[in-house]
Amino acid sequence: MAQQSLRQKLEILADAAKYDASCASSGTAKKNSLGGKGVGSTEGMGICHAYAPDGRCISLLKILLTNHCIFDCHYCINRKSSNVARARFTPQEVVDLTLNFYRRNYIEGLFLSSGIVKNANHTMEQLVEVARILREEHDFRGYIHLKTIPEADAEIIHAAGLYADRVSINVELPTTAGLTRLAPDKNAGQIEGAMGRTKARIIEAKDERKRFRHAPRFAPAGQSTQMIVGADDASDSAIIGKASRLYGDFGLRRVYYSAFSPIPDASAVLPLKRPPLLREHRLYQSDWLMRFYGFAPQEVADAAEADGNLPLDIDPKLAWALKFRESFPVDVNRAPKEMLLRVPGLGTKAVARILTSRRHRTLRLDDVARLTASIAKVRPFICALDWRPTLLTDRADLRGMLVRKSTQLELF
Amino acid sequence: MTAMQNVSLGSHYAVHLPAPDDFAFWRERARGLIQCDVPPDRVSWIEPGETGDLFAAEGPSRADKRLPPPPADAPPVRASQRFLTVARSAALHSDPARFALLYRVLWRLQRNPRLMEDKADPEVRRLEELAKSVRRDAHKMHAFVRFREVQEEDGTPHFVAWFEPDHHIVRAEAAFFMRRFANMRWSILTPRGSVHWDGEVMREGPPARREDAPQGDPVEALWRSYYASIFNPARLKVGAMLSEMPKKYWKNLPEAELIPALIAGAQAREAAMVKAGAREERRRPATLAEVVQGAAACRDCPIAECGTRAVAGEGAQGAALMIVGEQPGDQEDLAGRSFVGPAGQLLDEHLQTAGIDRADAYVTNAVKHFKFTWKGKHRLHQSPGAKEIDTCRWWLDAERALVQPRIVLALGASAARGLLGRTVSISKARGAPINLDDGTELWVTAHPSYLLRLDGAAREEQTALFAADLAMVRERLAELAG
User: Can you say whether the dihedral through the CA atoms of B400, B403, B409, B415 is positive or negative?
Assistant: First the structure.
């Protein structure tokens, strides 16, 4: 085969990496290049440097080191039995690409993953080598996210955490049965074991830094994971349950949900129909309900329909409110924060604004309208000084009134 | 003249700001005006290049009236921390009314020090909105500035960007780029002014034009390739992209010129992917005869296009043992029956030795059609690929559901894959049963044709292993029957 150009390799290895949903470049330790030799800064807030027409942000250079793989996971475009074109970067090529893109302000840093070549340890060593060259030889102070391979030795994963801002291990599928069927070479116990060890190292390193100012940082932006939605038959309730266990057991910063999407040369075992993208969105919304709105996993599951899936036409918070109408209306002038957070249409910021404003005035509906994005959505569920939604919360057709009419997007 | 007299005389003051983003100057003047008790409706704030409002335009004698010194007993001017934070951002907004609004809120803060907490107040709300849109503009500047590299005469690289911000943020945001690119020489040119960093000193320059910036950079071709490749055509969400990357930014983003074509091609690309993976929608066969007919008509994988026939399984529904081979060979294809060639004869011998009656078993293959290449006049066997085995699994699963064997014996790696969905190593998998998802026992052994290809000691060794595997299966069958 003719020698591949750098551009051809980039096309193959970016294409191979796009099924990883994670793009975050936020939440890491603050650093900048003043007084250093290289480039780079991270200031807490992530920056999305571009958006692709799939609505996903492009924050990091997200590529694989190679898409050769000895594993045969059915949902994966890079599985051994796939006919996809293969390519392989040298660590130095990845370093040069990262720096060239970074200097032109295209990216926040690098998100590097890889297919498994030879064995897990060899592959992980290559990933760590890229991070090492960037950090040590070029004094790169931007963001680095390394995918870690659970089968690799703990010392190599440890080295990854010393260079990277974030490390992640994908749990891939919400159920062990699904993993056994679709990712026969992977092992749920091994994945969770590696996540547990990483959590322990993160806590240890934080503790050391409290006592010794120059103790090395270990993955200051924490660890995250990804679950594929719709490739097996796990319901939303099962997925939410799994996610909340993962947050609890491994102190994850984020669980990403990736709606399984058709891939070229798909395995015959996969379902043909993709799940609606809206399903992924509803899962993220319920994830937010658990993390920022004080919902227990069981309460989110209560919002689901009989088959365990969240309704697609309305968001899970509204679904919960419609199911538990006895909790409404909520008085914006008296209700505690926890109850305000349950009102559909009130976000955490709107709730904070209501809480400070009501110290100064008794809120009228007009006041609430100035504090929220859409008063129409909120109105049926609140009381204000001049507003009481008589019987509105009891109406049988309330759901119909609140469902947004969906429209097909136009091409342009 | 005291401050009180000023008000009673109805004096009007016009303050000329030296620069549209000079918050420190505004702060200084606002402090003095408050101490002189000048109400907001008697002050005009005029940016450079503006003529100011009606009062200010009446004549220099009134407009340029100097502010009197504040009275010695004037109380200190107070503002909350929140006001300062918000005001610093809001002052950079391009709204000409921003300084007047800032002054009105500062004026009211003197009477109500906690005014900023009242988020429902229209003026506080407006101020927060101004600050928010300035913060957004700054954030978009961090994101969408695109440097292009040029070589300076001394050979050092110089990174130059052209950017069009909505608000007066260039000077304020230069620090962000300094912290990020401290060791690079860079310039950001905008219609509102430019900033230059040489690695040590920041300089400010006059407004620039797009033509002043370099027009291209070879790395942009790589960046565009990356942008096009990281996009997943199977999940088009144009609205989500537009809300974060509005079209007004596109003209300065090298990757944005690809967007219309990517969107236009997306649906076709997704449809092609789905079509390539599509299998005919069909109902699960209800009888073994339907399996035969269905497999014969199946064109889900390229093997079926070779002009061969689908070779059906043989044996009784309800057989306790199901034997699965790889695929029909040359002779099997001609005869239309499984395991009739040399490998079949070897299998028959071994079954007999082990005490298994082939007539009691159901014998079939993982792949139903013969895959081969022509070598002269001969059809040379070719192993089916993993994908072909996975595709044909539909028929094997249907057979297994109908026959309902207690034990399945897989001959070779292809057969094992057809049953397990993954590739196993025969040497590791043999010798112990594997439970399939419905509880059926799967025993894996080598394919008899493998034995035929070996010679001497290796053949003897493998033959012994094969015989031992069959003996174990026979024993297990007897146990299950008992």
Answer: negative
